[in-house]
Predict the 3D structure of the following.
Amino acid sequence: MTDFIFLLIKAILWVAVGVGMVPFIIYFERKFAGFFQSRMGPTYAGPWGALQSFGDMAKLLSKEDLIPDWADKPVFRIAPYILFVPAFITMALIPFGPMGVEIFGHTVDLVIADFDAGVIMFLALGSVAVYGIVFAGWASNNHWSLLGSLRSGAQMVSYEISMGLSLVGLIILSGSLSFVDIVDAQAGNFWNWYFIPQIVGFVIFYVSSIAELNRAPFDLAEAEQELVAGHMTEYTGMRWGLFMFGEYVNMVVVSAVIVTLFFGGWRAPIEALNFIPGFIWLVGKVLFFVFMYMWIRWTLPRYRYNQLMDIGWKLFLPLAIANLAVTALIVSVN
Amino acid sequence: MAEKLLFIVFAAFAVAGALGVITRSNVVHGLILLVFTFINVAGIFLLTQAHFLAVIQILVYAGAILVLFAFVVMFLNLREFQQEEQFHRGQKWAVVVLAPVMLAEIVFVVTAVTWSSVGDGFTPEAIAAQGGNVMVLGEQLFTKMLLPFEIASLILLVGMVGAILLAAKEDGESVCLREWDDDDCVSASLVEREV
């Protein structure tokens, strides 16, 4: 029974952190966008515009929920949920502290699910999330929506391959598919983290993750000059808000995966700093990578669709395979 | 107890989803229900401690294969298809004959195979002691089951080559979005350049 209660607490904690961060991330995204473009960003609501996201949320909740007459209504309704449910399941796999900690006399593992095949589970959930966008575009019964969702579907399926392959080298090094084991294998100071031996894999994974998240410079699916808003064109009010929300939750989760795989997860960069709880390190590192996504988004112009496919298939795929081959060779020689 | 309850939930959802797949006339609804069914089957795999199999079930079937189905379905103009007579009349009667044959086959296979030879020494505890699901399955695949594994991949390769051969267009041939509508046709070389 106590196990179940601790599980519940951990789950609530993760969901609360994941969801609670989103309004602030959206605020910072807009503020940073302003700074990168020599503007102020939101300034009116609250001090420095800090309450802007909450105002937007209230606005979205109170807006009318329009469903186009020719839309496929049941599919139109469930599509936004398909996008963010996999993100929450992925959160369960991310360890946020050591195993077997004593809390009020109970031994607790600071992870919700130490899953045998965690890394593949993450990739599998990512491939399920594609349906959210694909079905949203189809159900809207709108040319722009359909084109947007087709683009995004093709893009996500293409980049999934190099994303998966870029992780194989890391899996060879750690000898495990479990996130917990991978973090344990990176114990010690920051030069034990996998981003150093797997720098090629990290770069491929990071750029592919931008494509998976449909963010600029790979946001072809919602290129506003061409497709209005892609798969979100027909969505209004809170249903649109759910897409927005799902995008940012996905961003947090993918950042958490990157941190866990390549940057030591909840571990401190230097062993002497281990007195600070792992959860704080994890959230701090995650916020850094979320900031990197924003930085890239507001700095680089959007790629053309054929360039996007070229990068995925002609550059990243061979590079990922080369990285895998070199890693396998070095590991087998040693 | 909890496991039994979860099994009933997963099994009921899987069966309900599968029934939905064959009764929906809307292909996309069928597709969504098929994804749902696969995910529930993955849940049943999880309950039997077959983690790797469950994840691969989601990754390969629900994630990869059905996304391609979704693409094909979305490129077709379904609303016009639905109004057409699309089912062969004789199909119903073929089902009456083929379904019992299929059932008999399954019953025969289940009763004829001696399952003990398959399950030797692979209890959840033994697997955990040997380093987990992925490790044990991988070892089996690349040692004892190497030949069937390679044959399976060869069959997949043949399928892939065949699909490419069928899809390859000769230069000058035209590509149509909808077969009955000539206005939509463009020459294949143009499509290639666009792609």
Summary: Chain B has a mean pLDDT of 77. DSSP finds ten helices and two strands in chain B.
